[in-house]
Specification:
Rossmann fold, eleven-stranded mixed sheet, 5 helices, 26% helix, alpha/beta, globular, 267 residues
Length: 267
């Protein structure tokens, strides 16, 4: 079973990737650089969503190309890793959140277009992603939580991921609005990845590493930028430990995608 891994800020490569081969995937949505090989004994394909040196800010990430390339290369499940800002003040900085719900009401890609692969009338694959609960694969979530606990990593099982548009960070009123919706933590890339994996019926799970408290979550005490940068640097090792423990668990029990894609051509 081949597993896809998407990493973001602070994690541009994964330590311990064996027999790796750098591949450039040609997709209908552009070229994507992939690392294909073995990770913790499981077949894996890695995408760095921002690219080496953080070449792409969140507003320039090519989400459709990334997800299409993973599917094209035989991936059967995808894990997204993201550094995030805590909206819930009870989240400990430096801890993990394995999300079970999504707040992404704009449903837009970075260029402002709708977040979907189904953008052509009559496309035989067109359909609605119908959700029965949350948008994340329960099997993948369970493997990530078990792996984190096994590694002694502090982890929250469940929480709502809030997608926000970058590249700027958010104002106090914007964060307060998200908090009122029950959002646990925010970042700028997880929404499109969740939806696009859902449309391709790829089991997907999203795990966040809290690097800061979002604007005025702790009134009058903003997280120092130096702390944010320090924690972002630590996130790479934490994600690596988590993934190395989770990959064998996922490979042993192939997960199921969340929801159902109702395709009109098949009806």
């Amino acid at each position: 079973m081949r597993i896809g891994i998407i990493t973001g800020s602070g994690t541009y490569s994964l330590p311990g990737f064996d027999a790796r081969e750098l591949v450039t995937a040609d997709t209908p949505y552009g070229l994507v650089e992939l690392t294909v090989g073995s990770y913790a004994g499981a077949e894996a394909v890695h995408v760095s969503r921002h690219g080496a040196g953080h070449a792409r800010l969140s507003s320039s990430v090519t989400h459709r190309a990334n997800i299409w390339a993973l599917k094209q290369h035989g991936v059967r499940a995808v894990i997204g890793c993201t550094a995030c800002g805590a909206v819930d003040p009870s989240v400990t900085l430096g801890s993990l959140v394995v999300f079970d719900d999504l707040h992404f009401s704009s449903n837009r890609l970075t260029d402002g277009s709708l977040c979907t692969f189904f953008d052509q009338p009559g496309d035989p694959a067109r359909g609605h992603w119908i959700l029965h609960g949350g948008p994340f694969s329960e099997g993948l979530r369970a493997a990530l939580v078990a792996a984190a606990i096994g590694e002694g990593l502090e982890v929250r099982d469940g929480g709502t991921y809030g997608h926000v548009d970058g590249p700027r960070f958010n104002t106090p009123s914007e964060i307060a609005q998200l908090a009122a919706c029950g959002v646990t933590a925010v970042s700028q890339t997880g929404g499109p990845e969740t939806v696009l994996c859902g449309e391709l019926e790829l089991p997907f799970a999203l795990v966040g590493f809290a690097t800061d408290y979002a604007n005025e979550v702790v009134p009058g005490e903003p997280t120092p930028v130096s702390t944010l940068i320090q924690l972002m640097g630590q996130s790479s090792d934490v994600f690596a430990r988590l993934l190395q423990a989770a990959m064998p668990l996922i490979a042993q029990s192939p997960p199921v995608a969340a929801g159902t894609v109702y395709r009109f051509e098949a009806s």
